[in-house]
Specification:
single chain, alpha+beta, 11 helices, disordered N terminus
Amino acid sequence: MASVANGPYVLGPPNSPHQSKGGSNNNDKIFRFLCCPSHVLRNTGWVHSINCVAASSHSPRTPKRGSSTITRSTANKSSPSTEISSTAKIRSEVLSPFRSFRMFFYLAFIASGTLGGLIATTQLIAALTNSSRAAAVPEILNGLGIDIGAVSLFAFLYSRDNTAKNAQLARLSREESLSNLKLRVDEKRVIPLNSFRGIARLVICAGPASFVSESFRLSEPFTESLLDRGVLVVPFATDGNLPGFEFDENEETQDITAKRKRLWQLAPFNISEWSKWLDEQKKQAGVSSDSPVYLSLRMDGRVRGSGVGYPPWNAFVAQLPPVKGMWSGLLDGMDGRIL
């Protein structure tokens, strides 16, 4: 018998307290729960309730709007600063430690070549106005050409490094903003996205509710393989509607149903911040604001891939290494090139 649910389903432990002491211990429990095999969950009673997030959320700071799982925050309507943070600058220096030295020497060479060119220009003017110094004109022109060539070369190198630096800072700033966004694990737990670093590879599926529902359907054949690779999906319905997730509740398919619900259990928290971040990414990539997109994150939280349309579930299975077994740890950095 199939059941249809509006919005992402979550798994929660029985009789879990409203507040847990010790943030790191609480997150460790969440992560062990996320990665726990379905038969262990079933035998230990962790598969206790499958509840819609919005139907059971009563937090005073997250007003409920109908039955939507999308939580809008009204506590802070001012937009966050778009300036590059000091953390992003430090990370940029660590990733490219010699860039600042190169750019400094480029500027020094440009200044030296410019000064030499000015001196050669004055000498050329004096030689052209004095016939007794006409023999020195070819030599002066040769030196002036060298100065102009050197200034042009180092100006190009400086511009290239400066462009790469700005692009890297923008990418690191976007990754920092993304890592600060929050996810709802269940009706009582909200944690930042950076808490999943080293634990899960998140795939953000953003678009209308119909797009999210179709992505959910297309992922069904790859459910077990995606979970083996540490993939967890963040469904983000940008139109404010709830995607319909259909699960088969037959006893024969109980295991795969539990895995499906675990794969799609996360939900974005504070939707206004998610929308702003996503709009900035689309604007920078030249994608229309109403286009459905997906973003695939590496195990370290950096963006490894993105695109317009449905997530390529089969490509994820083919490219990502398993998080358990003989290859665990060894291939953790083989998530792909960062964008």
